[in-house]
Amino acid sequence: MRPAVFAHVNPDGKDPFDRMEDAGIAFVAAAENIAMGTDGAFDVGDFEDLFMDEPECAQNHRGNILNRDLTHVGIGVHHCGDGNLYVTQDFGTFSFDDIRDDPHEYCEGG
Length: 110
Description:
By secondary structure, the chain is of the alpha+beta class. 20% of the residues lie in helices and 25% in strands. The chain has a three-stranded antiparallel β-sheet.
């Protein structure tokens, strides 16, 4: 039996980008957000609030969500028997044409 793991890198050493490639997703840019909280104490809206209540223009959950170069998202939500709620967000861009090099409207230099 495999141990239960909720992390960006699984016990086989694969990160989200490896898993996307293994699934046949041909991205040119990608990112992942993951979060876990006690079911009942958290709901999906709470995770949204936590993700967005982070510093602007930083490499964090909020930055992944607002990154205009990440044009697609896949979302997973799982209520587990261990009493926890697990949320994943995988973001991707599939064309270099979607990557912008002009400055972001509200973040200096990027």
